[in-house]
Specification:
Helix content of chain A: over 70%
Radius of gyration of chain B: 21 Å
Mean pLDDT of chain B: 87
Distance between the termini of chain A: 11 Å
Order of helices and strands of chain A: HHHHHHEEHHHHH
Radius of gyration of chain A: 20 Å
Structural class of chain A: mainly alpha
Largest sheet of chain A: 2 strands, antiparallel
Largest sheet of chain B: none
Low-confidence stretches of chain B: none
Helix content of chain B: 55-70%
Distance between the termini of chain B: 58 Å
Number of helices of chain B: 6
Oligomer: heterodimer
Chain lengths: 312, 150
């Protein structure tokens, strides 16, 4: 074993021991969770990501809570945050309803399958299954942080010249009022067949690991299907609320959601999202994006090490 | 000033979905919060607070249910409907209501699409009604526990 591995193992054990030695009453714990999740919600908005993608890896890294419970609650957090954020996007016509209803079919089905598989792994694979989950989630989270860091190619208004026949038949093109430019933006989309494959993949990851999926849906809409960036972000939010609902019921039905744990987490992230949206109007929060990337990368690295240690 | 004739019409199905999902979610979260407060304030129900302690100490799902509720295996389905006299049952009902937000929203959107055929392409409306209907059925089957792990 290398020195680095020994040091990481020592840090990991110290964090776990500190978490378990942190004795508080259940009422205090409720309010600590509520406060921590408000902070997560604020940072998520300022960093331009969803609450779920921060909640799940952080909880899995730095608390002793069982990974199945964390993933179930993380999915609930992602769903609630998206449902709250969806309304203004739909009222303003920023979210493309045709695109959402079209994408919701593969996304919901695969998110549900991911959640069912998560339940099956919990019941059949025990610690080995948990180790593989930590390892895979670590790789995904580290990849997400790299995606957030290096994804500089986002295009505000991509130009679409050729539309394939399948996408053309779906008539996914729409328009919306762009207040900042004081004009109507008409846009077309393309590559719907590739989109279906991506929605399936992202839906499965979201349902299985209890993550939000904005980190993958926005690039899929913007870079692959060539929707304007605002439409991509708005449509992604609405879609996650629908797809994660299909998956979250599977966790509820298998007794994996405990209300006294889930309630402060969900309410905290929703309240934090509101506060973050207000703060965002007043401050420049570019550095928080880098902070979140660093935290996600650190969490991903620790989950990978946890997974390798458990497998070893 | 915005010229109303230039502003594209926003699809009603989307508005209906957004409104239903938002308000049902908020209602559910309020019920969940009330249930949690009742659970923490009630002295006669140590189960609720014990659950949080066990969750925080890292116990897995079957162990928590066995220790706190005396169940050999975790309950399946809508277990909270039999526990509405307790705070944690009410809190779980609130979470379940929150999770019904998108289910009800999708049915609302599908019904609106069915009742408003005044769009340019009737076949297109039928296609997207079909998509909305499929998603609404998937969400409903999931919420009913029919699409669940046994």
């Amino acid at each position: 074993m290398t020195d680095f591995n020994r040091e990481m193992e020592f840090v990991s054990e110290a964090v776990n021991e500190a978490s378990q030695a942190f004795v508080v009453s259940s009422t205090e714990l409720f309010f600590i969770l509520l406060s921590a999740c408000i902070v997560v919600g604020i940072l998520a908005v300022l960093g331009g990501v969803g609450g779920g993608v921060i909640f799940t890896p952080l909880m899995m890294c730095f608390t002793p809570v069982d990974s199945f419970i964390i993933r179930a609650t993380g999915l609930l957090v992602a769903m609630a945050g998206s449902l709250v954020a969806a309304r203004p996007f739909l009222l303003r016509g920023l979210a493309n309803t045709r695109l959402i209803f079209f994408a919701a079919v593969p996304y919901s089905v695969l998110a549900l399958m991911g959640a069912l598989l998560a339940g099956y792994v919990r019941e059949s694979s025990g610690d080995i299954g948990d180790a593989w989950i930590r390892l895979s989630l670590g790789i995904i989270i580290a990849s997400v942080s790299a995606l957030l860091l290096f994804w500089g190619k986002r295009v505000d208004y991509p130009e679409v010249n050729n539309v394939d026949r399948f996408t053309e038949r779906l008539h996914l093109e729409m328009s919306y009022w762009e207040a900042s430019m004081f004009k109507v933006v008409d846009y077309k989309l393309r590559r719907a067949p590739v989109g279906i494959i991506l929605f399936c993949f992202v839906g499965f990851i979201s349902g299985f690991f209890g993550l939000g999926a904005g980190w993958a849906m926005v690039p899929a809409f913007n870079l692959v299907m060539l929707s304007p960036i605002k439409v991509a972000a708005a449509s992604s939010k609405v879609l996650i609320g629908i797809g994660d609902t299909a998956a979250v019921w599977s966790y509820i039905m298998s007794g994996g959601i405990f209300p006294l744990f889930a309630t402060p987490c969900v309410i905290g992230v929703v309240v934090g999202t509101y506060i973050g949206a207000k703060i965002m109007l007043k401050v420049r929060a570019g550095f928080i994006r880098y902070l979140i990337i660093a935290v996600l990368f650190g969490s991903g690295a620790k989950l990978i090490l946890d997974g390798i240690q458990k497998l070893g | 000033m915005k010229k109303s004739s230039e502003v594209p019409a926003v699809p009603v199905s989307g508005i209906v979905y957004g409104q239903i999902a938002y308000w049902v979610l908020l209602l559910g979260l309020i019920v969940a919060l009330v249930g949690s407060v009742i659970c923490m304030l009630s002295d006669g129900n140590p189960g609720g607070s014990a659950v949080l302690d066990h969750v925080w100490s890292g116990d897995d799902v079957p162990t928590i249910w066995e220790t706190c509720a005396g169940l050999a295996t975790p309950p399946r389905g809508h277990w909270y409907l039999q526990a509405l006299s307790h705070g944690d049952g009410i809190a779980m009902l609130g979470i379940a209501i929150s999770c019904m937000a998108a289910v009800l929203g999708m049915w609302g959107a599908a019904l609106v699409m069915l009742r408003s055929p005044g769009q340019t392409h009737a076949s297109l409306t039928r296609l997207y009604f079909l998509f909305a209907l499929i998603v609404a059925i998937i969400l409903t089957l999931s919420a009913l526990g029919i699409l669940a792990l046994e």
